[in-house]
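Work Package 4 report. The design task specified in the project plan requires that, given a folded chain encoded as structure tokens, an amino acid be chosen for each position. We show below one input record used in the internal validation round.
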């Protein structure tokens, strides 16, 4: 049963302030768990975090940055990416440091 944003807006407008506050808190918690611009899908890049619409894992970008590549250098090396993609990757990498460390170590060719 699909509901349009307009229908939801109408329903929310009928709530009292305390219920609106509870709804807002619930939505905020769900959104806080999201990682904008980052996707995970089994069968694509082994299911690891990657930039949406690409097959570029976040750990690959984080590894390049740790090795001293600048954002400009990374964008030149990955021309399908843009600055927003990197900002999303850096945010994800900051909040998932252990995951990044593990993926980088598991894929280290040295």
């Amino acid at each position: 049963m699909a509901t349009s944003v307009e229908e939801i807006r109408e329903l929310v407008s009928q709530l009292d302030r305390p219920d609106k506050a509870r709804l807002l808190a619930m939505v905020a918690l769900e959104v806080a768990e999201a990682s904008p611009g980052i996707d995970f899908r089994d069968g694509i890049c082994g299911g690891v975090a990657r930039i949406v619409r690409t097959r570029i894992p976040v750990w690959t970008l984080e590894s390049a940055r740790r090795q001293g590549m600048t954002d400009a250098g990374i964008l030149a090396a990955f021309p399908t990416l843009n600055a927003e993609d990197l900002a999303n990757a850096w945010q994800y990498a900051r909040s998932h440091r252990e995951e990044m460390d593990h993926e980088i170590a598991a894929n280290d060719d040295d």
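The chain has a mean pLDDT of 89. Validation will be extended to a larger panel in the next phase.
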